[in-house]
Amino acid sequence: MTNTTDPSSKKNQEALFTRPTSINPDAPQVELRDIRKDFHGTTVLHETSIEIKQGEVIAFIGPSGAGKSTLLRCVNYLETPSAGEILLGGEPVVAVADKPTRAELNALRREVGMVFQSFNLFPHLSVLRNVSLPQERVLGRSKAEADARSMELLSRVGMEHKAAARPTNCSGGQQQRIAIARALALEPSVMLFDEPTSALDPELGAEVLKVMQELAKSGMTMLVVTHEMSFARRISDRTVFMAEGRIVEQGPPEQLFGDPQHERTRRFLEVVDR
Ligand SMILES: Nc1ncnc2c1ncn2[C@@H]1O[C@H](COP(=O)(O)OP(=O)(O)O)[C@@H](O)[C@H]1O
Ligand SMILES: [Mg+2]
Q: Which of 38, 42, 44, 46 to mutate to test the pocket of ligand 1 (most atoms within 8 A of CB)?
């Protein structure tokens, strides 16, 4: 859709498949326009709009139940928004907002990778197969091509030595790094992370955060929901504070953490571990 700033990843993307070029090259890479989500008649995400530029790293913080996961899940239609529009590179991701087609969802999921708190790796497959299989199924790569790309990505996340192992023989931090490699294997242009370290001991979480930091440096566009305030502060270009289903305020992390404008933000920052 849009080129990334990392020349090597651009080359890889172009070599493997062609994306539709965006209509408007100046358009934000990701745009939420008045996205709302209701569950059983209750609005958990009120009309929310946000624009994210290519290569931008956005950290979403806020209390539990604020709607952070819901917002993230709407971006790739794991939740169908009740209203509003998601655009990638200036183009709506689905033609009819509340009725995405299977083809639209497949195209969207290829473009937007997601990493969850739980790693969801296949326990009966080797680490290598876990990373290769989606490439064969979704991108139509041959096994040899997929395995070669998998090994590159596993080495990028420091996991090539475990290629033949089962995920169950890897630590939680290792499994999460494998899950990141698996998501990257589909050559997404945007990565979503929903509290990727919250199930991990701090030490194992640190390994994952390091990989994410590298990814951010490589120019990947990232939307990261995190409870790690120091991480949000360090890697985000912009931190977004959410509460009660709304974006309360957003800004460069030094501003949001150093000089929050809203009482709700201050109250949250006072009680969290910074
Ligand atoms: N599938 C669902 N069905 C009903 N309610 C949900 C569902 N998913 C989330 N919610 C509710 O939406 C609100 C926002 O949840 P969530 O987006 O998970 O918040 P956060 O990630 O900020 O903790 C919560 O009140 C939660 O209970
Ligand atoms: Mg959540």
A: 44
